Amino acid sequence: AKQLGRNNYQFFTPELDAQAHRRISLESKLRRGIEQGELELHFQPVVSSGSGKIHGAEALVRWRHEGELIAPGEFIPLAEESGLILPLGEWVLRTAAGRARAWQDAGYRLGLSINLSSRQFTDQELVKLYLAVLADTGLEPGRLYFEITESLLMKEIDRAQHILGALRDIGGKFYLDDFGTGYSSLAYLKRLPLDGLKIDRSFIRDIESDADSRAIVEAIVSLAQTLHLAIVAEGVETTEQLGFLQGMGPMLIQGYLASPPVPAERFDALLRQGDSL
Ligand code: C2E
Ligand code: CA
Ligand code: CA
Ligand code: CA
């Protein structure tokens, strides 16, 4: 980067050239990885703050490449830039729906969340894809939750409202993810057909040490209660944090305290075991 601006031919410096090559080669590896089944979904339990019982899960994608398990932070941005997020997102949706169907067959009534990127969200095909996935899996509508972020909504609120409405008409549910970190325009809460808010981990992390974080969490919880929205507290790691949250009223908890994201078989073992806190 220090070479930027040195001359007008900055794009052709060896350094940037190498960087571009790495990116392109990672991109083609990811493309092949998607085709060859290198993606995995892990599932993180979402539990009730009072009983500790498993209420649902969030599906989180991983890439198993050359013996390594790569976290989404390392390839989702690349997938978004390159457009690979569309096949990746379709794989996530189909695979998640398949799991949710298996739980349905086993008699569990769980909600399963998947994360949506803005590229998928503006894709005209999303509504059709969701319908096709429901038809193909026989999954009861209303089991899948789409996690969306404020930055995603901000881009085009009218369009967002339209697509959410169409998905909701066929049973789609929505959580506003990372709540509190974006612009948090309260207009979203009014205009969008949301089912719940996920309070960002940064507020939960500081809940013991910082009175402001605590006040913000309390305010979000009471707002959600008034609007009849579910609350999921993200990133709950300690029993002290859980204690503070339990004092604020019933909610859902997600975090390492209950369980990290785990492979499907491990999640099923947790389900059979009953509770997770
Ligand atoms: P996110 O949606 O906010 O997901 C929660 C992240 O917090 C996950 O990281 C999870 O492993 C982590 N986490 C959960 N509990 C705790 C905790 O107690 N402490 C800490 N420190 N972390 C915790 P992960 O799996 O690495 O995912 C990172 C991000 O990648 C996600 O953030 C989401 O934005 C994105 N992502 C993951 N899977 C998908 C996907 O299938 N599609 C899309 N578009 N994005 C995805
Ligand atoms: Ca999420
Ligand atoms: Ca989140
Ligand atoms: Ca996040």
UniProtKB/TrEMBL annotation:
Source superkingdom: Bacteria
Domain EAL, first and last residues per copy: 23-275
Protein known as: Diguanylate cyclase/phosphodiesterase with PAS/PAC sensor(S)
UniProt organism field: Desulfobulbus propionicus (strain ATCC 33891 / DSM 2032 / VKM B-1956 / 1pr3)
Classification lineage: Bacteria, Pseudomonadati, Thermodesulfobacteriota, Desulfobulbia, Desulfobulbales
Portion of the parent chain present: 800 to 1076 of 1093
